[in-house]
Amino acid sequence: MKSIGEQIKKRRVELGLTQAALAKELGLTDKAISKWEVNEGNPDIAIISKLCKVLRVNTDYLMVGAHEYEEACVTNKIINLDALENQKDIKFVKDTLNNNYLNYYEFAYNAIINNKKEELFKILVDSNETSLAQDLLFAVNPKRKSEALNFFWKYTLAHQNNEYIRMLVKERSDVSEKENIGALEDNGIINYLKSIRSIIFNEIKDKIEEYQKLEEERKARVKAVAGLTKDYFKKLQKEGNDEMFIIRLCNLLDEIYRYEYNIKGEDFSERMSNYFSEHENDELKDLFNRLRIKRNNIVHCEINEIEPLSREELKECLDSVFAIKNKGE
């Protein structure tokens, strides 16, 4: 089993984050991250929730490890849908659905049909169904097989509680009247379980694809703003490099609009306008627009007449951008 530190390092590398970048997201030093990753300490329990959010995993991933977490998706051939829905590997999800069972009833049906009844013996014995277990294991009486299916229908309802079982029960609440739970051929419940596999797979697949999209966006953001710290901008100001200061500050501000606030728009100008339509501040809007126009004059060789930005106004822009960034986080 991997340690928490090993899991953090594995996930950090997958996301393309440096120790410094992860530390910054958490408000810590990179030395703290380094200590976790070499098992010289663990994250404080108070920061676990934020750490999981930054790494885009749940606490189970950190606590039990990726391999162990995958194993938690299946217990004795029964799928744990709650765990499976948190997986990020489409192939693993597909293989799990194809090679295991959604509930004990489906498991029992396939064991009986394929004459693998010994797999059911322990469950029956543990449930004080010794007589039924012996008859099922050694006899070929169809009646006892049907009785076993009836038992496993009740066992399923008692031991599993997820969305798809609830859906099954809801749609077939009068199953005892409309269907023969113990049917060994053309079993309506089994047919239904087969039919919803593709629904389950597609729902998880959509979640994985959305997650992957967010990951790509996150990596793009990390790359775009790498090194754009407040100290970096102060250094540019100190060196008198106002043009680079303006260009990079606009880059950072646009990334904040896009990723921290999810502001939509065709370009920086439209995203800025949309931001201020939600966060009214006419004074700051005017200041940022002057900053944006100055950036366009530098980058696109445009000639737009604007009032020059003083050193104090550039400092105000810097402070305001980082205030917006911190609030968005």
How would you sum up this structure in a few lines?
Helices cover 71% and strands 1% of the residues. It is mainly α and 329 residues long.
What is the makeup of the main sheet?
A: 2 strands, antiparallel
Tally of structural domains: 3
Alpha-beta classification: mainly alpha
Beta-strand fraction estimate: under 5%
Account of the protein in words:
- This protein has 329 residues and is mainly alpha-helical.
- The protein folds into 3 domains: 4-65, 434 Repressor (Amino-terminal Domain), CATH 1.10.260.40; 74-205, no CATH class; 227-328, no CATH class.
- It has helices at 4-14, 19-26, 30-37, 48-55, 59-64, 66-71, 81-84, 90-99, 104-113, 118-126, 130-138, 142-159, 163-171, 175-178, 188-225, 230-239, 242-260, 268-278, 282-299, 311-328, and strands at residues 74-75, 78-79.
- It is elongated and about 95 Å long.
Topology (SSEs and partners):
Blueprint: H1 4-14, H2 19-26, H3 30-37, H4 48-55, H5 59-64, H6 66-71, E1 74-75, E2 78-79, H7 81-84, H8 90-99, H9 104-113, H10 118-126, H11 130-138, H12 142-159, H13 163-171, H14 175-178, H15 188-225, H16 230-239, H17 242-260, H18 268-278, H19 282-299, H20 311-328
Antiparallel strand pairs: 1-2
Helix pairs in contact: 1-3, 2-3, 8-15, 9-12, 10-11, 11-12, 15-17, 16-17, 17-19, 17-20, 18-19, 19-20
